[in-house]
């Protein structure tokens, strides 16, 4: 991981002469005429460009210069990625219950990447990001110099800092690392839940720290940003409240509202799974609180679980909800928007940064007080009070309406029972265990069928070959090879089904 992290901001620069030529062509004058000083040696280089320091009208600035020929390179690579996305769309088994739209994910990534090579777009993003955080003193965004900014050249205020993963240097600076980790997570919760506009590439090369206000986060590189629609943002807030209130119905309703969950005929398995994860989440928080209390009392750390113990716990969790997970996998009710890819990636990177700053970092513990604050804020908001009153009125109206419909419903229920008794209506009972057994039997039968076909074709091809009928013999051998391959694929499927069964029953 340490070697991979070096790749985030240590890319070989391109020749400074080329950079100067691009700057002069874009700005329409020589660097000596525009700047008081221009450093030919770049201070940083990345895959899309490199950064030079300069002095402009007495102020220290940085000039970001785009690598030459980048647009043409993007066109070629993204065409190839489009082909891969279309292939994945066809072959993805979706065995985890999520119906991913690989082409939509590709389109979102391509859009973000093309925006990243337009530096005027990045400048707009930086200004919008700065405006969103103008009231928070722990976030700093460099100021844009628009007069000296074009699609290939970006001029910004020079704001030096220490990379957020340089632990020893941060300690020398005297900042509170634990607080920095909390600030990083809170700033992202603010971006996603409040602003709907977030930094989609928060690796340590794009976040630095200085000693202003006891430790301030400096964000760089605003080319890769994500936007969340008001509908999705409101849904995420509702999910937040549902988790906080341990209400699975509220969580599921919010997911339906966002379009993440498509209601199927039977939502029982989804609801039970949601309830299980909410209970597990609460148990985890309680265990962490207890662990912290023990650590404080004993001035030590709790012994970490071994790999075997972690695997055993995972087996127990799967065994508890295995059948529900299989039902979800069969129905595939989940549809994940492409934007979620960037949200999940951002929080994964932040989790890594947080654990580097503080070994006991836990993103859920940081999010919990933030959720409380959101709840207090929302409880005080007139808009939310009106919305809640509207929901209550709708519930009361439905209850009043249903009161007068009860006799009709009782009569309709009696008619359904009568039709069941007469055999006019059939009741379908879903037995997941039987479904799994039939699925395995079908896979085994298919394997046997392919095996018989391969054996028969091999026998036929051999007879034809020895009778010097070479053309048909070649065709028979080819078909034999095809069916032999199908046998291998079917055997792998049977093995996979057996492994799923063992995980569900806890015998793996």
From TrEMBL:
The lineage of its organism: Eukaryota, Viridiplantae, Streptophyta, Embryophyta, Tracheophyta. SUPFAM superfamilies: Protein kinase-like (PK-like). Signal peptide: none annotated. Belongs to the protein kinase superfamily. ADCK protein kinase family. Residues 7-254 form the ABC1 atypical kinase-like domain. This is ABC1 atypical kinase-like domain-containing protein. GO terms for biological process: membrane lipid biosynthetic process; regulation of response to reactive oxygen species. The keyword Transmembrane applies. Pfam families: ABC1. PANTHER family: CHAPERONE-ACTIVITY OF BC1 COMPLEX CABC1 -RELATED, PROTEIN ACTIVITY OF BC1 COMPLEX KINASE 8, CHLOROPLASTIC.
């Amino acid at each position: 991981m340490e070697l991979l992290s070096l790749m985030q901001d240590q890319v070989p620069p391109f020749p400074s002469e080329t950079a100067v030529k691009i700057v002069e062509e874009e700005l329409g004058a020589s660097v000596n005429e525009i700047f008081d000083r221009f450093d030919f040696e770049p201070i940083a280089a990345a895959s899309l460009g490199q950064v030079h320091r300069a002095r402009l009208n007495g102020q220290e600035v940085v000039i970001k210069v785009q690598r030459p020929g980048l647009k043409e390179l993007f066109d070629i690579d993204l065409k190839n990625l489009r082909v891969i996305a279309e292939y994945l769309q066809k072959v993805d088994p979706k065995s985890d219950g999520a119906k991913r739209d690989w082409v939509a994910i590709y389109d979102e990534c391509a859009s973000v990447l093309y925006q990243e090579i337009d530096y005027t777009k990045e400048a707009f993003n930086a200004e919008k990001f700065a405006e969103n955080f103008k009231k928070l003193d722990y976030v700093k965004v460099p100021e844009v110099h628009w007069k000296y900014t074009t699609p290939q050249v970006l001029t910004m205020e020079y704001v030096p800092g220490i990379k957020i993963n340089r632990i020893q240097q941060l300690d020398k600076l005297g900042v509170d690392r634990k607080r920095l980790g909390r600030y990083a997570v809170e700033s992202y919760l603010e971006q996603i839940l409040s602003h709907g506009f977030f930094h989609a590439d928060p690796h340590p090369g794009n976040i630095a720290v200085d000693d202003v206000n006891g430790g301030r986060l400096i964000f760089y590189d605003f080319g890769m940003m994500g936007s969340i629609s008001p509908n999705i943002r409101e849904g995420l807030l509702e999910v937040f409240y549902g988790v906080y209130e341990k209400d699975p119905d509220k969580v599921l309703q919010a997911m339906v509202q966002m379009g993440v969950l498509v209601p199927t005929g039977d939502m029982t398995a989804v609801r039970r799974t949601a309830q299980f994860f909410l209970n597990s989440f609460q148990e985890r928080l309680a265990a962490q609180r207890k662990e912290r209390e023990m650590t404080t009392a004993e001035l030590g750390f709790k012994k970490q679980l071994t790999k075997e113990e972690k695997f055993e716990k995972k087996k127990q969790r799967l065994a508890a909800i295995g059948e529900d997970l299989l039902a979800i996998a069969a129905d595939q009710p989940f549809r994940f928007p492409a934007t979620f890819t960037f949200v999940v990636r951002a929080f994964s990177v932040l989790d890594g940064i947080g654990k580097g700053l503080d070994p006991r970092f836990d993103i859920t513990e940081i999010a919990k007080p933030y959720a409380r604050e959101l709840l207090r804020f929302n409880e005080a908001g007139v808009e939310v009070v009106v919305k809640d009153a509207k929901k209550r009125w709708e519930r009361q109206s439905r209850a009043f309406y249903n009161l007068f419909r009860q006799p009709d419903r009782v009569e309709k229920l009696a008619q359904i029972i009568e039709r069941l008794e007469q055999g006019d209506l059939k009741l379908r009972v879903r037995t997941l265990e039987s479904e799994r057994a039939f699925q395995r039997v079908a896979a085994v039968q298919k394997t046997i069928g392919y095996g018989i076909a391969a054996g028969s074709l091999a026998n036929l091809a051999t007879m034809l070959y020895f009778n010097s009928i070479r053309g048909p013999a070649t065709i028979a051998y080819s078909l034999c090879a095809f069916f032999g391959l199908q046998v291998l694929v079917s055997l792998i499927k049977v093995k996979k089904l057996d492994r799923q069964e063992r995980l569900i029953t806890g015998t793996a």
